[in-house]
């Protein structure tokens, strides 16, 4: 194992976050506060509670997930895409590092960033609403697994993307609709049966539901199924990456 | 000692069907400076990229210090430093960080004293806290060299190192190259500037169309292909070459005021002396003489045109 290399790549990526502190950390905090103020007052004044939890508290896990997914996918993808774009990737490709070590460095940094931002949002939310965490261990487990899985997903996008347009498609156009329609801001019990069924095709539903369960013990789907779904998605990402590394897909011609 | 790099029957066909290498065999000796010459698209960069692990070979194999570059990539890549052709840098990093990063990804423990020495040697010390985007092109080139040296490689690849580089950097660079060579580092450089190969290389390889056309010691190459010319400026106009000088390869200049003698390295020992005495005997006087030796460039152009 080339630990020095992992440390260097991880450190390099974390330094990039420090340089871009404003957009990395402060902007998600502001956005989340806006959600609380606007959604909390506009909708919260009409929906008092959902399954016994106040509306503001109910949406907190979903808001954390929304930001975590977006951040992990963008950070995971830009980390590897940018060297590819500027050409500096030659150095990593010619260094005595295995692709898995490169992956651990980049994905580790992207997941760390996502987790930090998730925790900052949790802290911000606690200023606005009452937060109760029924299963702290499960909460952390959901958070960590989701961060890793979506950073891996981002890494795949970063290798696949040939331009900035493709790079941004997933975090901008795929993650937000799936999160909004995945029960972040409502319980899917509130939907007609047909749309409830459709919602079950949305992978983000399982993340939000399981994560919310770790807070308030209320869930749209069984939390075990949520964990299994994350596991499945993690396995899919790892297999795709395994294939990419083996074939040198868009990295080594 | 086995060669430090052994390229065997190496082929590379890119996804678009382009055959960049068509079976290259090349042994590079420890501690030598090898210059690879060739026009654009000849396959030089592909060859280097395969040795360094950036491009996968299609066929054949490459051994570095006896280890296969694909199977045993950790061993081989840690021995190699690469200065790429393109000026690719992380714009927002500082010089110090980017050079330290290179050492790290090569798996070496931090060594600030060594990094300082490298930066000073390349006149980068004063710029160590500058962001790379603030540097000129020449300075960026120095940074790329510093990055390649940061992990103390035993083999250094310089891909077109002097493209767009000013005189002072070129001088610094050759100083570094000489110092590395004294330390036993093997250096492979590709270049368009043939004078450079002529000046510093021990051996010269010529690549074109994905094939190694020639690989020879520079001096032997010059001897074999290098023609010499002796030009005599005459004091009086000469209409024809006298019969007594017919045995020499002589031609008369257009205005009849000069004589040109062509000879090879082997002939040079005695032919000049006898030519000069024959001239005196024929009563031909000259006021100046000059000799010219064909450069690697002439040889290179002749080779590439001949084989194309």
Automatic annotation (TrEMBL), chain A:
Q: PROSITE patterns under this entry?
A: ABC_TM2
Q: Name one GO molecular function term.
A: ABC-type transporter activity
The residues covered by the ABC transmembrane type-2 domain are 19-248
Keyword Iron part of the UniProt annotation: no
Q: Which domain of life is it from?
A: Bacteria
Q: Where in the cell is it found?
A: Cell inner membrane; Membrane
Keyword annotations of the record: Cell membrane, Membrane, Transmembrane, Transmembrane helix, Transport
- Bilayer-crossing residues are 21-43, 63-82, 140-161, 167-188, 224-245
Extract one GO cellular component term from the record.
ATP-binding cassette (ABC) transporter complex
Keyword match Ligase: no
Give the bilayer topology.
Multi-pass membrane protein
Q: Known Pfam families for this protein? A: ABC2_membrane
Give the family this protein belongs to, as stated in its UniProt record. Answer: Belongs to the ABC-2 integral membrane protein family.
Q: What is this protein called?
A: Transport permease protein
From TrEMBL, chain B:
Which keywords, in A-to-Z order, does the entry hold? ATP-binding, Nucleotide-binding, Transport
* Domain ABC transporter intervals: 5-234
- GO MF: ATP binding; ATP hydrolysis activity
SUPFAM superfamilies per record = P-loop containing nucleoside triphosphate hydrolases (SSF52540)
Record InterPro entries: AAA+_ATPase (IPR003593), ABC_transporter-like_ATP-bd (IPR003439), ABC_transporter-like_CS (IPR017871), ABC_transporter_ATP-binding (IPR050763), P-loop_NTPase (IPR027417)
**Organism domain of life:** Bacteria
The family database entries (Pfam families) matched by this protein are listed as: ABC_tran
Presence of the UniProt keyword Chloroplast in the record: no
The text of the family note is: Belongs to the ABC transporter superfamily.
Q: Identify this protein by name.
A: ABC transporter ATP-binding protein
């Amino acid at each position: 194992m080339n630990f020095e290399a992992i440390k260097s790549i991880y450190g390099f990526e974390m330094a990039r976050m420090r340089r871009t502190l404003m957009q990395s950390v402060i902007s998600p905090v502001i956005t989340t506060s806006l959600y609380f103020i606007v959604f909390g007052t506009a909708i919260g004044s009409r929906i008092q509670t959902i399954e016994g939890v106040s509306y503001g508290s109910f949406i907190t896990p979903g808001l954390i997930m929304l930001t975590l997914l977006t951040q992990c996918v963008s950070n995971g993808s830009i980390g590897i895409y940018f060297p590819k774009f500027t050409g500096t990737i030659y150095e990593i490709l010619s260094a005595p590092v295995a692709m898995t070590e490169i992956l651990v460095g980049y994905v580790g940094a992207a997941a760390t960033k996502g987790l930090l931002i998730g925790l900052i949002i949790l802290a911000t939310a606690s200023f606005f609403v009452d937060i109760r965490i029924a299963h702290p261990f499960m909460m952390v487990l959901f958070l960590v697994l989701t961060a890793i899985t979506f950073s891996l997903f981002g890494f795949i996008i970063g290798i696949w993307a040939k331009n900035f347009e493709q790079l941004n498609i997933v975090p901008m156009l795929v993650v937000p609709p799936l999160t909004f329609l995945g029960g972040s801001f409502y319980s899917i019990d509130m939907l007609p049966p047909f749309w409830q069924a459709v919602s079950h095709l949305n992978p983000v539903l399982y993340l939000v539901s399981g994560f919310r369960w770790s807070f308030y013990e209320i869930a749209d789907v069984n939390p075990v199924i949520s964990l299994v779904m994350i596991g499945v998605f993690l396995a899919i990402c790892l297999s795709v990456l395994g294939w990419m590394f083996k074939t040198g897909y868009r990295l080594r011609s | 000692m086995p060669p430090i790099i052994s390229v065997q029957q190496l082929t590379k066909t890119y996804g678009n069907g382009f055959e960049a290498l068509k079976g290259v065999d090349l042994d590079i000796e420890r501690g030598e400076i090898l210059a690879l010459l060739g026009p654009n698209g000849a396959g030089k960069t592909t060859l280097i990229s395969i040795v360094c692990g950036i491009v996968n070979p299609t066929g054949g194999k490459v051994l570095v210090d006896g280890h296969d570059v694909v199977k045993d990539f950790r061993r081989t890549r840690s021995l190699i430093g690469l200065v790429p052709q393109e000026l690719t840098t992380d714009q927002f990093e500082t010089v110090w960080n980017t050079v330290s990063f290179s050492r790290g990804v090569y798996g070496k423990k931090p060594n600030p004293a060594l990094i300082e020495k490298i930066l000073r040697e390349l006149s980068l010390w004063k710029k160590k806290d500058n962001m790379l985007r603030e540097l000129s092109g020449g300075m960026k080139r120095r940074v790329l060299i510093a990055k390649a040296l940061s992990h103390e490689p035993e083999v250094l690849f310089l891909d077109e190192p002097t493209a767009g580089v000013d005189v002072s950097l070129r001088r610094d660079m050759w100083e570094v190259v000489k110092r590395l060579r004294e330390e036993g580092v093997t250096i492979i450089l590709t270049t368009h500037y043939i004078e450079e190969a002529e000046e510093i290389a021990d051996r010269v390889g010529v690549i074109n169309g994905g094939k190694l056309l020639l690989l020879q010691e520079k001096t032997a190459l010059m001897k074999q292909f290098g023609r010499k010319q002796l030009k005599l400026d005459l004091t009086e106009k000469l209409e024809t070459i006298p019969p007594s000088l017919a045995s020499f390869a002589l031609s008369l200049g257009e205005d009849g005021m000069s004589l040109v003698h062509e000879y090879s390295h082997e002939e040079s020992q005695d032919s000049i002396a006898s030519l000069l005495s024959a001239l005196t005997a024929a009563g031909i006087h000259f006021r100046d003489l000059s000799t010219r030796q064909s450069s690697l460039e002439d040889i290179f152009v002749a080779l590439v045109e001949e084989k194309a």
